[in-house]
Design a protein that fits this description.
heterodimer, A: mainly alpha, 0% strand, B: mainly alpha, 5 helices, 77% helix, elongated
């Protein structure tokens, strides 16, 4: 357990006062309108969304995840964490621009702009429910990670960490909405990044420095851990090239689409809050660059941890490695600063997902389906109420996390796999329609269960490695959504033409482009 | 550089509002370089922290590639943004109308 001195407690209390205070200060801005409460008035310069991208995607469980994969796989494990940055590298240039131009508050609202009629409403409703649940799940998941950290540091029951800190964070989210999120994300991003540098460098130093770490790995016959490309064969072993290539394809092509990973939903909000298309692109690009630096530091620090503790068999114990280094190696007076950093990375993710879940509940559920003529004041009030409901829901989900984690992680990953191609087609192919998209989602619900659990349990197919599950589900989904798309009517050409003139999507849009020009919505040159 | 000179340059750096709306080779190149720079930065950064000289070279190459990405895409992004901002208000009205069921097409 960590021993806190008065100076350590000073850091923790100062941080909590700073975060909550700064968030509450923006109360007046947050309550002005729905656009302020959820998008900070769409007026942010690129560096604010960038810091929010970094802060949101550095959560309490992130160092656990990175530590776990590096401890187990050596430096090649970093490719697990590089999927998201690789996807953002493409998205910043392609899908970010298209999405920002759509002006959709959320990915659910996008469905009403991209598609039309009953199909678009079914998609919007489906995506709204999915997003509300997803944010609750992430909040519960990240909350429980904080519970584990508090158990390590103070010996607290895990639910204390889950409830106490999410509730404190909710104070400024309820008060100031996205303004509170974005301002505190900037501060938290600066604190988190600085501390990650300090703690990681300190940990590397405590392990003897880079040369000692390298030498020790050679002495232990573990030098392969220094090789980022230490594959175990094309399709065999625990690190096949086929997996790596699948991840590259997933990221590169996925960056052209939208919602191709669950991270997109939070990115979408940051994109829309940027004041211009250019700011949106740079917000994603720069925020992701910070993540690369973060991961490099963590990877080397974890290698150092491995040289000190090479025989940890339990994955859950190994995952706590980076936290252990902070608590064990930092001097008194700095431990509190480290814990304040942990709070920073925790709050940034919690606040983002509280506000994001409330956005879907307010804009897409309440305003669109229940009270379309709601005033701005009513919408902000509903935003606050939704935030509270999602917070409480996250506690319930978090409490169940030990039992549900396995199958929920499966649902998240494989839902992404099965609708990955449709998420790209919705951007690049004019003929892809709402019915095709809906059929892809519904089909994948059933096929995921079959391919991953049911059929292997009955011996019909073997248990497939994850990259093969991805390609299998992609193929099975294609068999369903392609015929459905081609056998149902295209979207209304007038609707598509207006969508095209506004967003200028990339890909196969010839007939729509010609229609938009014919209607005078754009010129031949533009 | 004259308009004719710009049209002959491999990388276009001056854009009219209309021309910037189209997806061109500059976008494809920027996307490819963006990904390349990120991969080089993660590989090089990790190795450089281990005081590996090759890693330092890779990291430097990644940073140069990132700078090149910016050089290629920024003029176009500026042109796209400038044009789009003049139309955003009208587009916002349409988006709001759809959510409030006021404009159905």
């Amino acid at each position: 357990m960590a021993q806190f001195t008065p100076l350590d407690w000073f850091w923790v209390i100062a941080f909590l006062v700073l975060m909550v205070g700064c968030g509450v200060l923006f109360y007046r801005l947050g309550q002005r309108s729905q656009s302020d409460f959820f998008l900070a008035g769409r007026g942010l310069p690129w560096w604010l969304p960038a810091s929010s991208v970094f802060a949101t995607h550095t959560a309490t469980d992130t160092p656990m995840f990175v530590t776990g994969v590096i401890y187990q796989h050596g430096l090649r494990g970093i490719w697990y964490a590089t999927l998201f940055p690789a996807w953002c590298a493409i998205s910043a240039i392609v899908s970010t621009r298209i999405y920002r131009r759509s002006l959709a508050f959320s990915q659910a609202e996008w469905q009403s702009l991209r598609f039309g009629g009953l199909g678009s409403e079914l998609m919007r409703g489906w995506m709204t429910g999915w997003a509300i649940f997803l944010n609750m799940f992430i909040l519960g998941w990240v909350g429980m990670a904080m519970g584990k950290v508090c158990q390590l540091a103070f010996g607290w029951p895990t639910w204390w960490g889950l409830v106490i800190f999410s509730s404190v964070c909710a104070i400024y989210v309820l008060a100031a909405g996205y303004w509170g999120v974005i301002i505190t994300d900037f501060q938290q991003g600066v604190i988190a990044f600085s501390s990650i540098v300090i703690v990681s460098v300190w940990a590397i130093w405590a392990a003897g420095g880079p040369k000692t770490i390298t030498a020790r790995l050679h002495e232990m016959n573990q030098a392969w851990r220094l090789d980022l490309f230490h594959f175990t064969g094309f399709a065999s072993g625990e690190f096949p090239i086929a997996w790596f290539l699948t991840m590259l394809v997933f990221a590169i092509l996925g960056g052209v689409g939208m919602a191709t990973t669950i991270d997109w939903f939070a990115e979408a909000q940051r994109i829309q809050s940027a004041r211009t298309v250019r700011d949106a692109s740079y917000g994603i690009w720069a925020g992701t660059a910070l993540i690369l630096i973060r991961d490099s530091l963590w990877a080397v620090a974890v290698l150092g941890f491995f040289t000190l503790y090479p025989n940890i068999a339990s994955r859950s114990e190994a995952e706590m490695g980076w936290y252990r280094m902070g608590f064990e190696f930092l001097p008194a007076g700095m431990v509190g600063f480290f814990f304040a950093t942990i709070l920073a990375i925790h709050f940034s993710t919690i606040s983002s997902h509280l506000n994001l879940g409330a956005l879907y509940a307010t804009r897409d559920l309440y305003q669109h389906y229940i009270r379309p003529q709601a005033s701005e004041k009513q919408l902000v009030r509903m935003g606050r109420l939704s935030t509270l409901v999602i917070l409480i829901g996250s506690f319930l989900l978090g409490a169940m996390m030990q039992e549900i984690t396995k199958w929920l992680i499966f649902a998240l990953w494989l839902m992404a796999a099965g609708v990955w191609l449709p998420n790209i087609l919705q951007v690049v192919w004019w003929r892809f329609n709402a019915w095709g998209y809906l059929s892809a989602w519904m089909a994948n619900l059933g096929m995921s269960w079959l391919v991953v659990w049911v059929l292997p349990a009955y011996g019909v197919i073997p248990v497939l490695p994850d990259y093969l599950q991805f390609w299998t589900l992609l193929g099975l989904g294609l068999i369903v959504f392609l015929p459905v798309t081609l056998l149902t009517k295209p979207e209304d050409m007038g609707h598509l033409a207006r969508f095209y003139a506004m967003t200028r999507p990339v890909g196969w849009w010839g007939p729509v482009r010609r229609e938009a020009i014919r209607r005078g919505l754009m010129t031949e040159e533009g | 550089m004259s308009a004719k000179g710009q049209s002959r340059a491999f990388i276009r750096r001056e854009w009219t509002a209309d021309a910037a709306q189209q997806w061109t080779k500059e976008d494809a190149l920027a996307a490819a370089l963006s990904l390349t720079s990120y991969l080089l930065i993660i590989i090089g950064g990790t190795l450089a922290l281990l005081l590996n000289v090759v890693g330092m070279v890779i990291l430097a190459t990644g940073m140069v590639t990132a700078a090149l990405t910016y050089w290629i895409i920024d003029p176009k992004l500026r042109a796209v943004s400038a044009d789009y901002e003049t139309k955003q208000k009208k587009f916002l009205e349409r988006v709001e109308g759809i959510t409030r069921w006021e404009s159905r097409e």
